[in-house]
């Protein structure tokens, strides 16, 4: 049992690609947790996708022992955080398990939107902040300017800002010493009823769920009967230990320590991130604050391109769900695409990662329908309906009002790009809130904007108009009424439910025209006329016609009376009419992606 005054629990927060995982590698090497050069880069990013994209998708934790300059050996617990806005709640719970945080800023790019967002989370959790300027070895680095930015943002002395190069290791020893000296030790609550905060969990095929937790009060020992506050389920601890590179068993975990426990838990949903664990024998009165139910924000339908893969898709989703409690799915049927699943995700990145993993790990080729958000519909009879699939939108005559989720967006950009960004936000139905100057050259813009307008291509457009210099972050602020309608697509009168979309009324004509024009290009010509329509309810607002292919049936007529040719053409016309009555138009997969490519 370690004396809590020699424990330091800390996290590293940074914008994507500012060097968080690389700095973690150097700290691991410096403390002897891994041998120098004997491991892969970005050690804590153990998913192939994490390395490719340069982001942390799943949070990790690791324990290190470090002999400080004062001669004492300290236990350092690095609780890593996911690196994307979709996983803000997980970041907040990881920070709640710490007493301090390193805030890393790239010396070539300066403070970004996500850095500020995560910094606010750290301040809310009353953490000691250690500012670090990384990549000082880069030719384009401007460490002094960035240090001034951070000092002004934090209200600290410029001498408190540490300069490092995580790539070369320069300045890393100073960072580890600062962790020991500046970050306070955990409070000594050894005699209180045991409480531990769950900040992560994963499913092990042989052992069940492995729970990562920070002990806040008391002691947990092998054989203790524990319970989770949210699910109220009870289990018996059959293994616990420390989070080194390989799990290191121990008999007990006490106040301030970070570790893992196994108790034959069958589902990740039982050990939810942010929940509190206590013992049955000496139960705590109330859980630790901050837990909330994680709700999907973005929905999409996943359909296998080969109908025979439906059971394979079900099995793959079940396996992903074991490790990802925030993934929600249910079976659904589409007249256009057959059998599939309606899946709910934390955000667009979560959707992309899941789709990529289904393709890579389970060899499934999928069609994903247009991502959409969850709407709240008030019907004329007073009934309140939640709609996450446009196909399930009630009849327009039954609807009294529709509410959609809004987010508060923060964009940091050089001041010369303020005007085009303002125009972009205005186009997306955004409302201006405030402007703050971070430094003479860069501005922080705040807007309220519908989430539906953000999840399509807002980030790409923002990067385009700011020439790559803008950074973007957002948080949900609630639901607001909007004038929204369902736009349907019909091909030869048949509804293509997978192409239905919920959209603001002002946009319907423009969107409908672009959509039918795009589909006209993509749907192959048939032997009969194909009519594509965009409609709101029964009212058609846009129409396109695919002309039929024509066989030259009069080619075999040489001379003779004109009535012979007319007779052949009339017979062809009658044949095409019969064919149209029984024919069904096959819509290519490209058509379902076309909606994503339409300029908004």
Task: Provide a descriptive summary of the structure in words.
The protein has an eight-stranded antiparallel sheet with strand order 11-10-16-7-8-15-12-13. A six-stranded mixed sheet has the order 2-3-1-4-5-6, sandwiched between helices. The chain contains 14 helices and 32 strands. The protein is elongated, with a radius of gyration of 29 Å. The model is unreliable at 37-59 (pLDDT under 50). The protein has five domains: 4-182, P-loop containing nucleotide triphosphate hydrolases (Rossmann fold, 3-Layer(aba) Sandwich); 195-279, Elongation Factor Tu (Ef-tu), domain 3 (Beta Barrel); 298-369, Alpha-Beta Plaits (2-Layer Sandwich), CATH 3.30.70; 376-482, Alpha-Beta Plaits (2-Layer Sandwich); 485-597, Alpha-Beta Plaits (2-Layer Sandwich), CATH 3.30.70.2570. By secondary structure, it is α+β, with helices and mostly antiparallel strands. Helix 12 (508-522) packs antiparallel against helix 14.
